[in-house]
Amino acid sequence: MEYDVPSVTTAVRILKVLSRYRHKSCSLKEISELAHVNKTSCLRILRTLEREDFIKYDSKRKEYSLGPYLIPLGKRALELNPAVTTATAELAVIAQRTQLTTVLVRRVSRDRVMYLATEEPPGNHPKISVSIGQHVPIAGVSFGRCFIAYDEDSEWNHFVELGLVSYTPHSIVDPILFIQTLRQIRHDGYSISRGSLTPGLSAIAAPVFNQESHVEFVVACLAMTSELDSTREMDIVHVILDSTRKLSEFNGYQGQHDAQPLEDYSW
């Protein structure tokens, strides 16, 4: 049985709205529209959150933003979640070895993933700017498709029926190619996308499994597509897989890491 407290649900929705970079400061009207709640209820919840320092109000601009208490709260959540702490620490190892910006990604809904942590390469190597907490469409890029690939096969049709979005000329919008790509990810254990979500940006990704053999996180390296050739891509794949296998084992995963034979899926 599902329990739902409307005011709590709305408060969480408001915090999620303000956590997005493009909505980091919003007026009451904007928040009420984005959170799908009437202005009176929205104001009551905002004032409660403000009193507890979860929300900050700028009286001059008449805008709300995330409050200071969320900073130590987030740090404590990280400390109390060993899987996240270990995975975050491993990002530095990967960034050092690949000399690329490395991110930890988590699924936050059926259709979206979120940047959970990022690590920049040391020195003067090119860096890709990533906003922690930013949501990304799950089907649009390699690190999102790493989650979908290990869903039940029947779930794949959801994304096809929803409609595959063309973000760039390199986006996968053909249903048959999309399904083939998911099969290949499940077979190979990693995924590479080249400019499929952002023009000129490549992502090389692999999943981290938990004890239940579900994808807990995805680790990805980001780079300008022009900087990579096939040899360099595979070097990066080997580094990422070395780390994701260790992280999966830390989580209690006891499944098969090696590539599996492609099955005959019917479409």
Explain this structure:
The protein has 267 residues and is an alpha+beta fold. It is 42% helix and 18% strand. It is built from nine helices and eight strands. The protein has helices at 6-19, 28-34, 39-51, 70-79, 82-98, 142-148, 153-162, 175-188, 230-250; strands at residues 55-58, 63-66, 101-107, 112-119, 135-137, 191-194, 201-209, 215-224. It is globular and about 55 Å long. Mean pLDDT is 91; it is low at 260-267. Keywords: DNA-binding, Transcription, Transcription regulation. This is IclR family transcriptional regulator. Residues 5-68 form the HTH iclR-type domain.
How would you briefly describe this protein structure?
The chain has 267 residues and is of the alpha+beta class. The chain is built from 9 helices and 8 strands.
Keywords:
Arc Repressor Mutant, subunit A, disordered C terminus, 267 residues, 8 strands, single chain, two-stranded antiparallel sheet, Beta-Lactamase, alpha+beta, 9 helices
Shape: globular
Give the number of domains. Answer: 2
CATH architecture assignment of the largest domain: 2-Layer Sandwich
Distance between the termini: 35 Å
Task: Please give the order of strands in the largest beta sheet.
Answer: 5-4-3-8-7-6
| Estimated radius of gyration | 20 Å
Write the CATH fold name of the largest domain: Beta-Lactamase
Main β-sheet, in a few words? 6 strands, antiparallel
